[in-house]
Structures are given as structure tokens and as C-alpha cells.
Write a sequence for this structure.
């Protein structure tokens, strides 16, 4: 089912496509190719944070459910060297750093609805050479497909006609319980290392062991044990390079529901919505406050172009960037 979701000034109508199958129903809007709603049969609340109208997505709902890029996370000082060139990128974080591809990154753009079937929706975007300071005309296609399980598989493909930087992330805020916060959720991430960062959330050096830190989620941790301590907004290192097939990146559980996240990406940014303050009503009518959801963002490591030891973010001309991320859901009461 496709319907209009509102109008972006100068960017046309935002469409909302709903797909369903195997007990899972997902709605995706063309703004940012964003997951706007996600429902599991037998559960009376959504599994992600979202808004029933377009306006909040332009304000407090920025990044909610979106695909962020062409470079997810941060690049320090909006600068990077590529093939002997120094790139000067959009500095949309406090005027100092690039964040999520810049002020006109893919999360802010009205993607094209490319294909739609009962259990699948595909969206596409085109970024021009020089867009946000990045070289190369880039074509992007994102496909959401519901699989048995049920599971939602996201495949992101991108190509460029010039050497460029490329890293995308899906930025849904998950809440499996429907409670006001995710404090009662249990999180597991099989990461042995994390990236220490400075006050601007820019990586400050090589990976460090999670042992003895508030970022050790190798065994299940109830989030309310960590939310009152040092702020969590960090990349956990799953691997030192991208993988061809998805591997387990995280498990989130609340009560009878759980979600297992698998991805090809070598990093997982964990961010429990520290910044949220009640504003526009979300789906269901309640406004979202701090820790109302948790973002689990599979991606390359932040600021990788400025750290030779990090996984490479370089996409050559004619090469194909391919990310596969799978979100699998289980109702433990139904067997």
C-alpha cells in the first residue's frame, strides 16, 4: 500500500509504502528511505520510534529510521585525503565536523520509490559530483525485504563514477517493550573493542579493549545499569574489514520480544537517544524523551579516512558498495 505522507518544500511529495509478511509489517517513507513504523503480529505497540506526520522528521525526528550517508557518522574537521586530493566536506556538526553525510545527506533527501511489492520496497537516490564536498556522481538503491522469521533485510547498493568515500547506516531507534525508555532492555554486542573519542565524538586513536568499561556488552546487560553513567554514543568494533555475509552484530531483548541484528559492516554505533526531549507526539500519541529508543547502526568506523589502520571507506569508480543488514524478531511466548 502506498499513500502520500506530506510535502517537502521544493522537494515534492513524500510517499509512504507499507509492506508485510510472515507476521511483520513495515512502513517506509521516501524521506531518507526511513522506516516510519514497524509492527509484529500479536504486539500492540510499534518496535521503532516514529511519527504519524511529516513535520517532526524535519526537526526532532531528524535521522529517525533513516539511511544516513554518503558517509555515516563523523569525519573530523570535514577533511579527508583521497587519491592525493584533500576533500573539504560539509561541516554540519557545530560548524566543525561532517555528520551523517552533511546537511543534505541521504537522511534529509526525498528518495525515489523504485519498486514495491507486498513484502518488498526499493528506493533510490542520486548524489551529484561535489555534493557535500564528495567527489563522484553516486547512485544508491536501498531495498527492504521481509523474510520468514520474521526478519527485515536491508540491502544497500551504491556505485560512483569517481573514487569517493562511502559508508551508510540504518538509523532506526528500537524500543521492543513500548515503555517510556529502553532501560528494561537487555543488550548484547559481541565486540571485543571500541573506539575512544574526544568531546566531539571524534575517534582519538586505535581501538581499545571493552574489558572493564561501560561499553562491554559481550554478555547481556540491562540498559538501565548503564544509562545513568557515562554517555553512550560509540562505535563498537565488530571486525577490521567489511564482510561478504552478515554476521551477528547485536541482540536486543525486552520481555517476550527479542531482535537479533546481523550485518556485513565492521562497526556498530550504539546510541540510546541521549538527546531526546519531549516534543511532537510519536506513534501512539506519546512524546519521546531521553532513552526512548536505542539506535544500533551497522556501519564503517567513524572518521576512517583519517585513520590508516581503520577499515577502508574508499569506493573506486565502477565498484559496487554492498551492505546487507538483517533484523530478525522473535516472540518467545509463541515458541
Amino acid at each position: 500500500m502506498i499513500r502520500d505522507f506530506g510535502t517537502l518544500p521544493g522537494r515534492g511529495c513524500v510517499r509512504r509504502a507499507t509492506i508485510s509478511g510472515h507476521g511483520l509489517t513495515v512502513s517506509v517513507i521516501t524521506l531518507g528511505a526511513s522506516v516510519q513504523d514497524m509492527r509484529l503480529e500479536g504486539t500492540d505497540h510499534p518496535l521503532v520510534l516514529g511519527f504519524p506526520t511529516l513535520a517532526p522528521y524535519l526537526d526532532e525526528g531528524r535521522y529517525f529510521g533513516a539511511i544516513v550517508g554518503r558517509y555515516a557518522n563523523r569525519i573530523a574537521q570535514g577533511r579527508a585525503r583521497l587519491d592525493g586530493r584533500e576533500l573539504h566536506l560539509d561541516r554540519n556538526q557545530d560548524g566543525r565536523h561532517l555528520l551523517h553525510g552533511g546537511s543534505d545527506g541521504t537522511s534529509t533527501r526525498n528518495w525515489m520509490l523504485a519498486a514495491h511489492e507486498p513484502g518488498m520496497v526499493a528506493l533510490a537516490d542520486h548524489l551529484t559530483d561535489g555534493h557535500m564536498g564528495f567527489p563522484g556522481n553516486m547512485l544508491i538503491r536501498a531495498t527492504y525485504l521481509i523474510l520468514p522469521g520474521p526478519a527485515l533485510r536491508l540491502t544497500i547498493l551504491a556505485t560512483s563514477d569517481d573514487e569517493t568515500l562511502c559508508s551508510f547506516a540504518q538509523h532506526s531507534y528500537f524500543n521492543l517493550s513500548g515503555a517510556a525508555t529502553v532501560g528494561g532492555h537487555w543488550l548484547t554486542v559481541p565486540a571485543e573493542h571500541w573506539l575512544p573519542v574526544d568531546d566531539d565524538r571524534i575517534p582519538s586513536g586505535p581501538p581499545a579493549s571493552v574489558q572493564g568499561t561501560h561499553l562491554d556488552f559481550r554478555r547481556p546487560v540491562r540498559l538501565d545499569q548503564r544509562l545513568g553513567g557515562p554517555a553512550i554514543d560509540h562505535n563498537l568494533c565488530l571486525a577490521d574489514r567489511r564482510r561478504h555475509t552478515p554476521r551477528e552484530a547485536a541482540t536486543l531483548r525486552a520481555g517476550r520480544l527479542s531482535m537479533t541484528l546481523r550485518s556485513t559492516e565492521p562497526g556498530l554505533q550504539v546510541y540510546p537517544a541521549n538527546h531526546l526531549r519531549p516534543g511532537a507526539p510519536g506513534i501512539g500519541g506519546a512524546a519521546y524523551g531521553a532513552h526512548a529508543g536505542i539506535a544500533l547502526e551497522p556501519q564503517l568506523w567513524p572518521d576512517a579516512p583519517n585513520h590508516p589502520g581503520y577499515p577502508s571507506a574508499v569506493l573506486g569508480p565502477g565498484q559496487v558498495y554492498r551492505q546487507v543488514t538483517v533484523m530478525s524478531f522473535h516472540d518467545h511466548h509463541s515458541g
